[in-house]
Specification:
With about 90 residues, the chain is mainly beta. Helices cover about 10% and strands about 20% of the residues. The strands form 2 sheets. The chain has a two-stranded antiparallel sheet with strand order 1-2. Strands 3-4 form a two-stranded antiparallel sheet. It is globular and about 40 Å long.
Amino acid sequence: MEKADGPSGAPSFSGIRVRDLIDALKAHDPEAPVVLTGREGGFSDVLGVQPIPLKLHVNTMQGFGPHDVPGPRQRHDAIALALVGAPLPGLD
């Protein structure tokens, strides 16, 4: 995935937005379970959603997603809505 800059020069996000997810969910049975793909295979339950600050396009190592939480004293590029299978440490 290539980094693209938004109108303000800040990194842009190329994934789906909350409105896209809402539209996609409307087309399905509201009683259907929601799952995430597991790291090594299989599927895990989604236990909730959590807003999370992100730095965009900061990871390039194999096996890491391209985005990450900002470090101490770093500003975030976006607030994302994360589907979580367990609480994220340090983000109460």
